[in-house]
Amino acid sequence: MDNHGGPKPHKVVPEQYCGIGNNLVSMHLKKQWHEEGFVCIPGVVGRSEIDAHNEIVSAARLTLDDRRDVHGFGDRIGQLHQVYPDLMNISAKSEIIDFLSWAFGEGPVLFGSLQFEKGSEQSPHIDAIFFWPEPAYSMAGVWVALEDIDPDAGPLFYIPGSHTWPFYHSDDVVARRPDLKERWKRPESVESLDDLVSEIGNAWTEEFISMERDRAAQRISPEIKAGDVVIWHSLLAHGGTPRVNPALSRRSVVYHYFGRTARLYTFSQFMLNGREDIKNLQPTEMPRGVHNGLEFMRFPHFATYSEGVERVRSVEEFKRNNV
Fold first, then answer.
1. Which terms does the record give in the GO molecular function aspect (predicted)?
2. Which of 53, 198, 205, 237 counts the highest number of beta carbons within 10 A?
3. DSSP 11
């Protein structure tokens, strides 16, 4: 799509930076962020920090029914740092905070975490549609290797430069699908909003996959060692490669951050509102706390996942019974 008749790309960094910004981040990383939307910072986390993190997660898994597979690996756990604050120790590392402060143009706030024992095998996706940030450059994912990642364990992949592609909003998607457009324009008449949101989400994914195919885009899997930190732009397409050897673990943690004054909107808000309309909605707001100097959103729940099914759990109840 060109910028005249189709979706418009978003700015990838604050306009005033012009690719320069502060001196705490190397020019190499800044250039890679602009061009590829993805950077890897090696050796950020030490062995003792990794061991401490893995010990907490392993102990928590013993109290959770996370339905381990035949190889003994549990599924991902979301927001476990709400129960165990020490799981934020890695997220507050200066190398991460310095980079995100440059990328956002302000200090970052932690709002999510995911603990992994095995590869996700996720198809390419873009984080921004699940929690839309305004401005679009003010959110990022941070992936930390908690062991050396074997190429057969289902490592991370990304599509370099995809954060600069024309970006579909829901109004762009439904404009190409008259059957969806009528219901999207009058959501109050729809029997199930959840079904409508799901349909638009599937149509959005189809549009992206078509664009990836038309561009003959490459999927890149970097070599990642224990303690390496990978950071990707909110608009960058990424996922997990197939687990060639499912007996291999892929212990890692993903953190999601947004800029201190940025606004976050839900998946439903993104899918039911157009590019400009969403800015007039009430963003997600939660109480905030501070851990090791890092501001974070406080949520009253965490989540376990099994075979694609999410189970939301009360932090207070879990602490009362297990911590």
1. dioxygenase activity
2. 237
3. P
